[in-house]
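Priority: low. Protein: D-inositol-3-phosphate glycosyltransferase. Input follows.
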Amino acid sequence: MKILSLSHSDINGGAARASFRIFEALHKSGVEIEMLVKYKESAHEKVLLADDFTKQGLAGQIDLFKTKVENRWYKWKIGNYNHRKDTFISNLSSVSLSEAFAKLDFDILHLHWISHQFLDLEELKYIKKPIVWTLHDCWAFTGICHYFDDCDNYRGACGSCNLLNSARDRDLSREIWEKKSRIYRQCNIHVVTPSKWLGESASRSSLLGRFPITVIPYPINTGKFKSVDKVLAKERLGLSRDRNYILYGAMNALDDVRKGFHFVRRVFELLPMGKHSNIELLILGSNVKELSNINGYRIRYLGSINQDTQLMDILSAADVVIAPSISENLSLMIMEAMACETPVVGFNIGGNPDLIDHKRNGYLAAPFSVEDLSHGMMWCLNENHNDRLSAEARKKVFNNFNEKRISAEYLKLYESL
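Result:
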């Protein structure tokens, strides 16, 4: 059985890293698998660049010209929504991957995050082999959004899109929803979601609800991701061994509203000034030093990290990780922190309950209560003096998300198709 995995990138971004971990777990287990990507940053020999399979000569030039025209047309359409929310909206158009599909030998096509001009969904109609699609957000079953927030149009038909600030039923979100609907009707897809929440959402959707859906979490290399001695980790990072560190981390940590830095700010504003003078906030994922402190509590910026060894030092040095996302599939940051024996406080939303067991290995705060988030942060800090939460956090990840277990679940799915 040969698997071809498709992902926009191999390791650049949360969804890419999650896809690569699934790919690596399957490869280690002996599955014949290759990964085709638009952007390659790893050195893995089984990760292939899509550009190496593009059409050549006149056919390639025509394909490229067609894609550029379609992209400009799409940007023009988006530009007509002058009051749309400032957020990322994917395009459906891309250079054709038909050459890759013709040249590569595979029995099952495994899709991951394929938005943003990587795979034209129209090409799925011509794949006469089983398709497994691991969702990393909601884009596959909505018109244009990657997270639907408080909108439930995806259950019927998109339109009057909140993201576009549109009052028209037949807007761009409806146009793309109809295109996806037409394509999916001609496809043989088995949907996989990493979290129960995403699986339930997909099953309620009008686009993917008719397909079989299986929940398979992300894997993590528990032999690689593990705690480092806290004192040693702090020394390597230049941190004081006598201070308590709260870690907040995300890509575009300060700018991505969905990741919830505004909640972190309000949490520290609630803390009595000076009462917890040994607490310091660490911010991972931003080089913009916007604030030096919040309410007198010092902020230390760690920038962006590309090395897992450095990430393990940071996660091990932290006493608590605060993860206040307003919508979340299955957070790699939470999983990695727990693997490194650091308790996490986050809102009781999305895939967070799949990871955090309330007051057993972390704290699930009521959405979107700043007071409860603040209480949970201090509860974890005070409750973990005997390392009980740390041990339970590691145990949860080790038992439920190890590579061997997750690869076996995928192999079972492949064999059933």
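The chain has a mean pLDDT of 92. Residues 365 and 373 are 5 Å apart (CA to CA).
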